[in-house]
Each structure stands twice: as structure tokens, then as C-alpha cells.
Write a structure and sequence with these properties.
3 helices; 616 residues; four-stranded antiparallel β-sheet; Light-harvesting Protein; mainly beta; Pnp Oxidase, Chain A; twelve-stranded mixed β-sheet; 31% strand; 6% helix; Phage tail protein beta-alpha-beta fold
């Protein structure tokens, strides 16, 4: 710059995309913490009145804080806000906000589904999709894949934060001049000593100017926390198993109970309970202090020394540091916890709750009309899901509520692919959907046109295969009441005892094929007036023993060619017999006989008559 203003040989400076010394750092203040995005406010001075905001906002910048022991401590971040705040003398004053790339995820909002991934895998996918690769996993535990995990109308930041809080993952940042890296961890081994001396001594406020970093004051706080954590849940695949998990600590006697605990195995529930309890225990003892130790960084370990109370001295992990610096001086405030205490982030991120009912479309494998599993579950495509392909991978298996569901009994109707269904969520949890009903729409239309068919109620099957579907229909129109039953192919009726059918009017049965009646007892057919049997070809009656035909007035048998009555033993005609228009009559025994016709020979005592030929 023409005036020669420079940041050379100063303990506090800034590097921005505008180049060296275009912006001069007058001071900054802000805070950083475990499992929390840092936030710094920078006061910048420049001889330029016309700084191009587009070259600054959204770009990286770094604060350099010189260390007393040599070297520099950097605070790198993204400039998320830039303000021209007036002028004084030859300078223009600017204010800049510095935040991590992780904070930029607060600007998003989405609804999406993750399936069969662990939380670390979900986080990696989330970060990379947002274009960020400056993160590092320092994990020691093994994580169980989540079958179904939903980001529901929340920012990627909130979604990632609540998942980390749920699993007991924490994060902090490593800074260099060119970048900042998010470190994702789950174990105390990640808390390495702070860069620098590593020992912070407690010194009073009076005295000469210091030549080393020091803590000027501190206090140790201890508070009561829960001593036990219990969780419960229910899993439909093991309905008789009592899913309960309990973990006890050493700090207190009070217990917290959480239901549902979101677990299906007891060991998983115990791990979740341990994480919940450790989050409370991490708040039990807190060291608070002030000073000007420039190398304090959250997530790193240091040793406190020379406190007048010996049991306060020892190893601590920094949880929170608030910085304040000007060109003249630097100071900070801090919070820390004993290094032997595992750290888990508190559960502060709200979990989304789905209020009411959502609509979705039943989906399945290509070409399948029904897609289900052994529990009668289906898969759906939610209308808000932009990534689903409307196939068998669009969601998890979702149970379907029925009117009645018992052990091998109840109602059972499976939603078909393409149907619009209503989905509710157990306890409002977007990860636990259940289908509770279905609705018609402009494509999935009602069985009968409305309002013309408004008096009809029906249970009707799917007719996508062609033909008329199975149906049980009720017509309640006055004067046209009807109960209609249609079987698309076969119909089987099984009655274990009695069946009674009473018809006030007429009954017609039409059979296009054959009719078979197989009765092991007796059949009684009574007609108040006439009983007519007609066969186009043959009418045959077979009796194992007796066959009786009886008429009070007349019994008539006729044939176009032959009428034959035969018996292997005896055939008796006990009525008066009249035979007319015949050529030959053979009588073995008769009462008086009248024969009308031409001359008829009546042999007496002659040879026997020839036998009657058998019926063909």
C-alpha cells in the first residue's frame, strides 16, 4: 500500500483473498467449542473504500496469532458476512464474520432417505455431496448400519448434528493457514496435548508484564447429574421380547428413562444408554478460567499447574474457549473437563416430529403388481422424496395396518403397486412409518362412477389382469336393493355344520358346464306345485337298492322307440292294465284283460315264448 501500512512484525494479522495487507486486522473476538461451529468477528481496516465484496464473501480467510514460544496459531474459516462499517481518517472500517464450512450446512433444508448406512457413512456422504472434503474420521467404535434414516425438513447441519449427538460422536477443528479440518471422533485418545508448552500455570493478576502464557484465574465446579439411564422399545419381529436396557454410572442415583429408545437388540440399547449417561457425566465437573494462554484449542488436552489447591491441578480437555484480541493484547476465557472423563455431546438438536398423515405411492420391482415380504409389508415413494426411483429401493419395508390382525386371523388387504396410501409415523418419528389406509385419486379411480353409483358399496379386487374382478357389492338404492357376489374364476364355500338358505321369491341357477351333487346322506326335494326334469340327451336314475315312483293320479312314461322296464328277479304291475295299439303282448299273470286291435293269437299250453331281446 502506498502509505506503507503492513502487518509485518505484529503478533496479530489476517490473510484474505484480496492480497497482503489490503485488509489489516485490528482485532477479533469469538468462540470455539467441542461439537459446535466456531464463530469469530473481525474488525478490519483498509485504505480502500471500494473493496469488492464478491471477492471476500464466501471465501476463505485466516487469522494468525503469534505464539510466545515461537510459531503461529491459525484460525481459518469462511467469511460468511462482510460489512462496510464507516470511515475514520484515511481508513475504512470493515466487519467480517468467520465461520467453518460445516456452518454453511445450516443454510440448507431438505427431506431425504438414507438406507443401510452407518452414521459415519451418512455424514461422509452428506459432507461430500455439499462439496466439502476437509474432514477426518478418528473413530474407534464399530457402528451398526441404520436400516432407514430420514432427514425430514431440516438443514443438513441439524441432521448431522442430531445424528452425532445420538451416537455420541463429537467434533472439533484443526486449523492451518490454508484450511480448517473437521475431526470426527468418539474416543478420549483423540485429545492430544495442545501445541505449545502443554502446561498452563495459574498466576495472579498483579505483577510485571508476563513473558509466558498463564491462567489468571480459575474455578472448579461440580454438579449433580443422573446416575442411571434406561431405554425401552418394541420390535414387531420379536413381539414377546421385553426390550429394556439400563446403564448405571457413579455420579448420582436419579434415573432417566427414554421410550422409544430406537433399538432392536439389547446390546445396541445398552450402548445407546452408555452414550446418554456419558453425555451427562461430562457435565459433572467443569473447570472455568480466564487468562491469556494463546495455544488453548477446544478438543486438545493441557495440564493445569500451580493452583493453590492441589487437587485442582491436573490434566484437562478444553471444551470451550472464548477469544478476545486487539493489536495491543490478547485474552481468553475457557471451560474444560477432567481428561479421564469421556466426552459426549449433549443432545440439544431437536428431533423432527411428523405431525399428522402423509400421502405416498406404493412401489415395487419393475413388472410386479404386488411387492411384499413375509410380514405383508410394502414399499412406498413419498411425494417429497426427490431421489427415489419409484422402485423396490425407494423406502424400507413398511407395515400395513389392517382392520383386525390376530394370530392367523383378521382382515388382510395388501396395497398394490401404484396405489396412493396414507402413512403415519409411530411416535411422530420419520424413521418409523406405517401405512394406515389408502385413498382414490384421478388415476386410481373409484369402482363405480360417482355420483351415479353413490348407493353402491363394494369390496372389489384389482382388475389389472383383465376381465371382471372378484367383488362383493351392496346396492342400497331404494327399490333396487341387491347383494352381488362375483368370483373372477373359482369359488369355494366350506360349511362345517349346517347351511340354510331361505328365498322369498324365485331362485335360478345357471351352470355353463356340469353340476355335481355329492351327498352322503339323503336328498329331499319338495315342490309345492310342479317338479320338472329335462335333459337334452339322457336322464338316468340309479338306486343301490330301491327306486320308487309314485303318483296319486297318473304316472306316465313315454319313449320314441322303446320303453323298457326290467328286473333280474321280478317286476310287478298291480294295477288294472290297458294296452292299446300294440302288435304283441306277453302276459304271465293278469286279472281280466281287454285287448283292442286286429286278430291276436292267444296260444294256450303251447311252447314258451321267445325271450325279449336285451336293451341295446
Amino acid at each position: 500500500m502506498s502509505s506503507g501500512y503492513t502487518q509485518d512484525n505484529v503478533y496479530l494479522s489476517v490473510t484474505t483473498p484480496l492480497g497482503k495487507d489490503v485488509l489489516l486486522l485490528h482485532g477479533f473476538q469469538g468462540e470455539e467449542a467441542l461439537s459446535h461451529p466456531f464463530h469469530f468477528m473481525l474488525e478490519l481496516h483498509s485504505e480502500r473504500l471500494d473493496v469488492d465484496f464478491s471477492r471476500v464473501v464466501g471465501k476463505g480467510a485466516a487469522i494468525s496469532l503469534a505464539q510466545r514460544t515461537g510459531g503461529e496459531r491459525f484460525f481459518h474459516g469462511i467469511i460468511t458476512r462482510f460489512v462496510q462499517a464507516g470511515t475514520f481518517g484515511d481508513f475504512t472500517r470493515y466487519i467480517a464474520e468467520l465461520r467453518p464450512w460445516f456452518w454453511l450446512l445450516t443454510l440448507t433444508r431438505d427431506s431425504r432417505i438414507f438406507q443401510n448406512l452407518t452414521v459415519p457413512q451418512i455424514l461422509q456422504q452428506l459432507f461430500q455431496e455439499q462439496g466439502f472434503t476437509d474432514f477426518r474420521l478418528a473413530l474407534r467404535r464399530t457402528y451398526t448400519p441404520r436400516e432407514y434414516c430420514v432427514q425430514h425438513q431440516e438443514s443438513a447441519f441439524d441432521f448431522a448434528s442430531r445424528l452425532m449427538e445420538d451416537e455420541g460422536l463429537f467434533y472439533f477443528f484443526e486449523h492451518t493457514k490454508d484450511r480448517h479440518t473437521l475431526v470426527l471422533a468418539d474416543d478420549a485418545a483423540v485429545h492430544v496435548p495442545c501445541p505449545g508448552p502443554g502446561v498452563a500455570k495459574v498466576q495472579g493478576l498483579q505483577g510485571e508484564a508476563r513473558t509466558e502464557d498463564a491462567v489468571t484465574g480459575c474455578e472448579l465446579e461440580q454438579q449433580v447429574v443422573p446416575g442411571s439411564y434406561a431405554l425401552g422399545d418394541y420390535f414387531f419381529e420379536t413381539p414377546s421380547t421385553r426390550l429394556q436396557a439400563q446403564v448405571k454410572g457413579t455420579e448420582g442415583r436419579q434415573e432417566q428413562y427414554e421410550y422409544p429408545g430406537a433399538f432392536t437388540r439389547r446390546d445396541v440399547g445398552e450402548q445407546r444408554g452408555r452414550v446418554r449417561l456419558e453425555a451427562h457425566e461430562a457435565q459433572a465437573r467443569t473447570l472455568r478460567g480466564q487468562g491469556h494462554v494463546r495455544w488453548f484449542i477446544p478438543g486438545y488436552r493441557f495440564t493445569l499447574a500451580e493452583h493453590e489447591r492441589q487437587d485442582i491441578n491436573g490434566a484437562y480437555v478444553l471444551r470451550w474457549v472464548s477469544h478476545s484480541a486487539t493489536v495491543e493484547a490478547y485474552s481468553n476465557s475457557f471451560e474444560a473437563f477432567p481428561a479421564a472423563t469421556p466426552f459426549r455431546p449433549p443432545r440439544v438438536t431437536p428431533r423432527p416430529v411428523v405431525n399428522g398423515v402423509q400421502s405416498a405411492r406404493v412401489v415395487g420391482k419393475a413388472g410386479e403388481e404386488i411387492w411384499t415380504d413375509r410380514f405383508g409389508r410394502v414399499k412406498v415413494q413419498f411425494h417429497w422424496d426427490r431421489e427415489g426411483k419409484k422402485d423396490e429401493r425407494s423406502s424400507c419395508w413398511i407395515r400395513v395396518a389392517q382392520g383386525q390382525a390376530g394370530k392367523g386371523w383378521g382382515h388382510f388387504f395388501l396395497p398394490h403397486v401404484g396405489q396412493e396410501v396414507l402413512v403415519t409415523f409411530l411416535d411422530g418419528d420419520p424413521d418409523r412409518p406405517i401405512v394406515t389406509g389408502s385413498v382414490y385419486n384421478a388415476e386410481q379411480v373409484v369402482p363405480y362412477p360417482l355420483p351415479a353409483g353413490q348407493t353402491r358399496s363394494t369390496l372389489r379386487g384389482d382388475d389389472s389382469g383383465g376381465g371382471q374382478p372378484n367383488e362383493l357389492r351392496f346396492e342400497d338404492k331404494k327399490g333396487a336393493e341387491e347383494l352381488y357376489l362375483h368370483a373372477r374364476r373359482d369359488m369355494n364355500v366350506s360349511v362345517e355344520r349346517d347351511s340354510v338358505t331361505e328365498i322369498q321369491g324365485n331362485c335360478t341357477i345357471r351352470v355353463r358346464g356340469n353340476l355335481t351333487l355329492d351327498v352322503r346322506g339323503s336328498i329331499d326335494v319338495k315342490a309345492g306345485r310342479n317338479l320338472t326334469q329335462e335333459a337334452k340327451m339322457s336322464l338316468r336314475s340309479i338306486a343301490g337298492m330301491n327306486l320308487t315312483q309314485k303318483a296319486k293320479l297318473a304316472l306316465e312314461s313315454s319313449a320314441g322307440t322303446m320303453l323298457r322296464h326290467s328286473s333280474t328277479l321280478m317286476m310287478m304291475e298291480d294295477a288294472q292294465t290297458r294296452i292299446s295299439n300294440v302288435r304283441t303282448v306277453h302276459m304271465l299273470k293278469a286279472t281280466p284283460l281287454m285287448i283292442l286291435g286286429p286278430m291276436i293269437p292267444l296260444p294256450m299250453g303251447g311252447p314258451p315264448l321267445p325271450p325279449i331281446p336285451p336293451t341295446p
